[in-house]
Amino acid sequence: MGIIIAGFATCGKSILGKKYNNIKDLESSPFKNIMRDDIPVEEQKGTKRDLNPKWPQNYYDAIAEAIKQYDVVLVQLKPEHFDYFDKHNIKYSIAYPNINNWEEVERRCITRGNNENFIRRLKEVFIPYYEDSIKRNYDKLYILNDKETLEDVLKKENII
Questions:
Q1: In order of start, what are the domains of the chain with their CATH numbers?
Q2: Are 151 and 17 in contact, with CB atoms under 8 Å apart?
């Protein structure tokens, strides 16, 4: 049975999912929204899209299946997901950038092609999501400092 790590945007979930066969990045957008095939996922973030009527249960079902198949399952960090995990006694860890490191988060957003609307909304939740996260019933809290990525932290922890 794999572990779940809820990671804030730009911590490197997608890169890990592509690089390691035993790690699954469950990007939430294709579960939450009706996505276009002709535009990369990162460029669609922050744009108006139709909500998938199966959301969020389709995402939770995918997480439950993924932890049976992968050592590490990386998921979107949102308070409502923590509520679900806690209610269903699902263990998880959290990966969060150092709260003094917004400039690095913003730089990563720009580099990966996120639009200004997405970046603005992310900045609005940056501190509140952190404050919420540290109050949760997580197994481990991984803080990413400076230019650290989730991969760097998981290597230090001997998870990868």
A1: 3-156 (3.40.50.300)
A2: no
Residue 4, strand partner residues: 73
Please report, for residues 6, 79, 103, 150, the alpha-carbon distance to residue 100 in angstroms, rounded to integers and kept in the order given: 20, 21, 8, 17
DSSP three-state, residue 108: helix
Omega prior to 79 cis, within 30 of 0 = no
pLDDT tens-digit map of 54-105: 999 999 999 999 999 999 999 999 999 999 999 999 999 999 999 999 999 9
pTM: 0.89
Give me the residues paired with residue 7 across strands.
76, 95
- Tell me the two tokens of residue 106: 């913003």
Packing angle, helices 79-87 and 116-133, rounded to 10 = 40
